[in-house]
Amino acid sequence: MSRLARKVERSGEGDEHTKTGRGGEFDFAAFKDAFESKDLERWAPFYAGWIEYRHVSQPRAPNQMVGKQRIADFLAWVCSADFGNTVADEVIGAERIAFIVDRAFPDGKRVFGHVIASIEDGKFTRQADVEARDE
Fold first, then answer.
1. Domain harbouring 88, CATH code
2. Global pTM?
3. pLDDT tier at 94 (50, 70, 90 boundaries)?
């Protein structure tokens, strides 16, 4: 069966998904909840030990992070930051996922981001995101 033809399984809860792919299952509902609630203990385990993460937030140069500890440090910073996260418009495939992140700051400013990630054994192995900010 081709990658495009693989079935995406629904968890039965609204538009939350669980997908089965290369070697493991990815629980999008649990990921989304951990991400939006900024719960580091539940969020960090979604990243594999060999993760490569490229975070692009203009006008700065891309932030290239490699390794689970480096990602955990970045996620810890996100969890401590004063903004809310909303995840929406997810597209889940057998080995990849894409979604939108909307960050709202107390002063009313927003950051809008697109995330594309590769998944293996139910964990992110590569992630790239690009953000646009209110000025």
1. 3.10.450.50
2. 0.79
3. confident
- Please report whether residue 12 resides in a domain: no
Q: In what order do the strands lie in the sheet with 63-66?
A: 63-66, 47-57, 123-133, 110-120, 96-104, 84-92
Rounded Cα gap, residues 83 and 85, in angstroms: 7
Domain containing 22 equals 18-133
Cα separation of 73 and 63, whole Å? 13
Residue 22, pLDDT score: 52
The answer to whether the Cα torsion of 32, 35, 36, 38 is positive or negative is positive
Query: Rounded CA gap, 74 and 68, in Å?
Result: 10
Domain membership flag for residue 13 = no
How far apart CA 100 and CA 77 sit, in angstroms, is: 20
Count of all residues that appear for the chain in the document? 135
Strands 47-57 and 123-133: parallel
Q: What is the DSSP string of 43-74?
A: HGGGEEEEEEEEEEETTSPPEEEESHHHHHHH
- Cα separation of 118 and 54, whole Å? 12
